[in-house]
Amino acid sequence: MKHKTLPNLERVVAHSAEVEQVLGDEAYGVLVAARGNLARHHRTGKTRVTQTKGRVDHYVNLDAGSLEASLSIEEGHVNARTGEWVEGLHILRDALRGA
Hints:
This protein is an alpha+beta fold. Helix content is 46%, strand content 18%.
């Protein structure tokens, strides 16, 4: 339940310079870890890890050119030739675990 005298407290805190700095720093740490994870793989193609900022939140993104390609790299996919499951690289997941 929100306190009636401070209805916008969450918004004020979320947009404060201090919170912005902490969120940006945390996202940057995940970004560096994810880039390291990606660099360990030989076939990275055009795949890259980026950081973007929304109105409040910071995002770390695995960009392989399309959502389908990015999801296949992160989570895995079925090999079109063999029909076998190819495990994903878990670039972002592992970066979050190390952050």
